[in-house]
Design goal:
By secondary structure, the chain is an alpha/beta fold. The protein is 46% helix and 12% strand. It contains 14 helices and 9 strands. Helix 11 packs across helix 14. The termini are far apart.
């Protein structure tokens, strides 16, 4: 029996809320908030992802959470039983005109959770879940963490750096940074640079999540590509950073130089930065500083460069990578002010 105390009384479920699902059958949840206004909450997708994970613990049932596909018809998928629960804007016109669906009460970002009337989550189970989340002691804190945009330079410019946190994921970032020996504020700078703390971020090349990790990189480093999950994405990105630091540790003149070379490789790819170091040394530079790499990048902008009789280095514009390293350092300085 599940008993939940609410403001209005006691809600009792004599059976598991997910009465139609087998114990090990995952609940397929889809978040469909991309491109929709969040009514004052900057990071709605991350907010609902965290709530769904807490709902999973509350209900004692596995959840599989993903983003809505670009051509996916969410309401039809709900009615046909292809998915179990969807997170949608409450003002979605199609939702208002659709029968056979049950909506939760509206969340602070004006989104609702939607299930099918004949689905495995009943109306009572949905109410139980939402009330259970709102009754948690961390409810208000969760809302506060996902409401700001966290733009670091604006925070400093407007003399409002002292929000309770530097990001919605401070504790995860701190734990992850400790594992690779970084100042957590530098890792926060990388995450902001990559995704603006948006778990739904996706590049045109297919990189995903907080640290914009490619799925094949995640599979190689940690055996899966669960990149929507903040913790798994941070772990994958940190694993790649750790690998890059090992690869270039014998090339860098100092820890600071290793950091800059690692950041460049994270942006441009390890092969490209290795080629730049090779060319720098061929031109008589020490090849152990980021400035050495920047010095030879202009030589790669007009076409292939040959070293000796066999080594050919392809065209590399490098503007993005140079800006990436400089901006990440600026962001790091900003986060040190925000979180001294």
């Amino acid at each position: 029996m599940a008993v939940l105390m609410t403001v209005s009384g006691v809600l009792t479920l004599r059976r598991s809320p997910l009465i139609e699902a087998g114990k090990d059958t995952p609940v397929d949840c889809v978040i469909a908030l991309r491109g929709n206004p969040s009514h004052g909450m900057a990071l709605s997708t991350g907010f609902h992802y965290e709530l769904l994970r807490k709902a999973q613990a509350l209900l004692g049932h596995p959840f599989e959470i993903r983003l809505c596909g670009r051509e996916e018809s969410i309401l039809d998928s709900l009615k046909e039983g292809k998915i179990t629960l969807a997170v949608l804007p409450a003002g979605d016109s199609a939702l208002r005109c659709s029968n056979g669906l049950i909506c939760s009460r509206m969340f602070p970002d004006s989104a609702v959770w939607v299930v099918a009337e004949n689905g495995i989550i009943s109306s009572k189970a949905l109410k139980f879940t939402v009330l259970g989340l709102e009754g948690r002691g961390d409810w208000n804190n969760t809302i506060e963490r996902f409401t700001p945009s966290y733009e670091p330079f604006s925070r400093i410019k407007n003399r409002r750096p002292s929000w309770p946190c530097a990001s919605p994921y401070d504790e995860l970032i701190k734990t992850t940074a400790k594992g690779i020996g970084w100042d957590w504020r530098m890792l926060a700078a990388v995450v902001w640079q990559e995704s603006r703390f948006r778990i739904e971020a996706r590049s045109h090349r297919g990189a995903e999540g907080l640290m914009q990790v490619m799925p094949y990189t995640a599979r190689y480093l940690q055996g899966d590509d669960v990149l929507l999950d903040p913790e798994r994405n941070l772990e994958a990105g940190a694993s790649y950073l750790r690998r890059l630091m090992r690869l270039f540790s014998g090339d860098a003149a100092s820890e600071d130089e290793l950091m800059r070379i690692t950041l460049a490789a994270y942006n441009a790819g390890e092969g490209r930065i290795r080629e730049c170091l090779t060319l720098a040394r061929a031109k008589g530079l020490a090849g152990n500083k980021w400035d050495d790499i920047k010095a030879i990048i202009p030589d790669l902008r007009d076409g292939d460069v040959m070293i000796g009789d066999s080594v050919v280095i392809g065209t590399f514009q490098g503007y993005e990578t140079i800006a990436y390293v400089a901006r990440t350092d600026s962001l790091y300085q900003a986060f040190k002010i925000i979180a001294p």
